[in-house]
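Lecture notes, unit on protein representations.

Consider one protein chain, 432 amino acids long.
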Amino acid sequence: MTCATPVDAIAGLIWRLDTVCNRASCRILVSPPYWSSKSSEDSEPMDLFEYQAKELFAKHNVPTTPGRVTDTAEGARAIATEIGHPVMVKAQVKIGGRGKAGGVKYAATPDDAYEHANNILGLDIKGHVVKKLLVAEASDIAEEYYISFLLDRANRTYLAMCSVEGGMEIEEVAATKPDRLAKVPVDAAKGVGLAFARSIAEQGHLPAEVLDAAAVTISKLWDLFVGEDATLVEVNPLVRTPDDQILALDGKVTLDANADFRHPDHVEFEDRAATDPLELKAKEHDLNYVKLDGQVGIIGNGAGLVMSTLDVVAYAGEKHGGVKPANFLDIGGGASAEVMAAGLDVVLGDSQVKSVFVNVFGGITSCDAVATGIVKALEILGAEANKPLVVRLDGNNVEEGRRILTDANHPLVTLVPTMDEAADKAAELASA
């Protein structure tokens, strides 16, 4: 996905907020969460760019179209000239919706490829700036299908999903044509041989005349899924050409970083330059951060609480001009001054943020420690803390925590007793 992505730490909320946090497109189609909760010892999964996914396709003999990656318009023209046929110029971003945003263009000539590349490079797609392009040979398409393998931890199984309705958002297929989407559990001990792969294709309603060819590709995708320790392998569209070839025209792969010790070659897929600087900053402090596209920054402790906070902010925002979450950061079990300062620094570093909602339930870490952390964090940040903070505390030692914030009387802090009221206040401040 994790379409990439701190997926493990926020599995449930990724599932709940598909319309806001667009990761791997098949994630909402299984019982939430299909990724397990993340412990502090776990590593975050690695979402790959399309061109990187296709490198793995080539490694595992999954048929696709020839192409190369570039970061210049002149490079796009050179690749198109080398290919010698019409090409697709495709923005390389780890977010959905690039086609609708103008990030995928057909180029009949090398000069067209140059022009499209010039327009796409630097394009901002939902907060992701395009720095690389994949220039790949355009393919004649007779039909478009969908296939994916993913890890469904909620049901303790692997899952194959297949549909004859490819080339569109798979969420839409699930909602409007659920009978056209097959969800097939996979026994890891048995794997996916050709016979079972053919059955998956049949259940996805692929035409009889392509079942054998599709089965070969599906089996190879399973080999990739297992061989690379992936948590997601998705092809949309998997196309049938007029001469009945089966090609993977697009691909999403998420790798389990906990298995990196088995894959030293995976280090080449890391691209710090393409990672959101705020996400990098959060990682440096072992914090889980995801950028969204709204106006309210969210800080919480624990995946479940953050998930609920995203929901209530999105709901409250409907009354305030469509305000939505701008980002979210899970501080986990730590709420020291240093952790809170780092968290606030990351969340406030997003220029879209107009207000911040700090929603903490005191458990092992008591509310008075959280409150002290907030006060000290504001002292540490000084003038850098320049957006209103709405704070809701509950749980262990909540009265003392509220007293500390009340006594501090910081002009940016509004203390609100309930989550719904706090979400409404944060949305109101963001819309002001």
